[in-house]
Structures
1.
Amino acid sequence: MTPSPAVSLRRVTCGYGAEPVLREVDMTVMPGQFVTVVGPNGGGKTTLFRAVLGLLPVASGEVRLFGGPPEAARRRVGYVPQQFTADPLFPVRVREVAAMGRLGAREPRRERAARVDRALATVGLSDLAGRWFNDLSGGQRQRVLIARGLATDPELLLLDEPTSNLDATAEEAVLEVLDGLRGRLTVLLITHHAKVASRFLDVIYCVNRTVHVHPPTARVDEDLMRHITGLGLPGSAAADGGGCGHG
């Protein structure tokens, strides 16, 4: 029996006012796929994530996660934002940030602690569990946010530019964590970086008011990323007038 898609969008139109941000979007992500989402700033990538998460009502069309509405799948989904800043007046420790992924779960304290421990171990930060979150480097903070997303024990993980504003060393540490997630769960990853896109080539979706799929290639370089995010994707529907660089 063929499994239901992890993510399915059918002719979805949505936005924040009278003018839609995304129009007539079709998208299918099967369980276990690692999907990279690229596109120009303002093209609708974060809006797409909000629609998938059920945080943004759609004007028309249908969003389904694992065959049902997004609201029914929330315990099966983890989300990693671009950044999270702890209030210095109310500091939190690394473990407490990771444990936010378990909010709302009814479970014994010991079981919750074990899930958080596993998530921190996955991102290589077990030894920093007791540190103040705001004392960490940018790359370490980003890995804590990934741990928070993993603490939900998700089947689907969405990451919004997890390597944004990181230096090369911190970026590589995050990419190694993401490499370790291959085959464990379904991943949707927003990025602007050719290095990141070239590392995860299962499927590339190009988002600019609508969505076009780009099949895997042997490499993704800066020239190709410029085509994807601004000028249309060579050899695809994007380059033929309906794609990433066109409104």
2.
Amino acid sequence: MKRHYTFWLIAIVTIVLDQLTKWVVTSTMEVGRSIPVFPFFSLTHIRNTGAGFGILQGQNTIFILVALIAIVAIVLMMKKILEKHHTTVFATLILGGAAGNLIDRLVYGSVTDFLNFSFWPAFNLADAALTIGVLGLIWMEIREEKDRK
């Protein structure tokens, strides 16, 4: 039962932090404004209708459908996910990240990105959660595969 609470807590905290940081950016910075923090990093308010690297710009419907499918799949697989404690964190990061960006796409028609490294496309906390979640699940699968051999 405790894992069940952990599952929802991580997802909710991810969504709240994502939406809170995006709210701060949208309420304090005009689109396009950039605040240098380090020589290689700035906070830059960007409205993104696509994915990273400018892929599929303007294809909001596709991203809404993918997010909905991911969210529904994770919720439906929750019982199985909870059986493997180490996958719980990664799956809920994916759930929270997908939900955070889904909220933006449904409300604004685009996603607010603001973490801008000079060597990488701008992103947000939901993107970071999604990436960590996916990479974590891949890592766990590789590790389990090695253990089976």
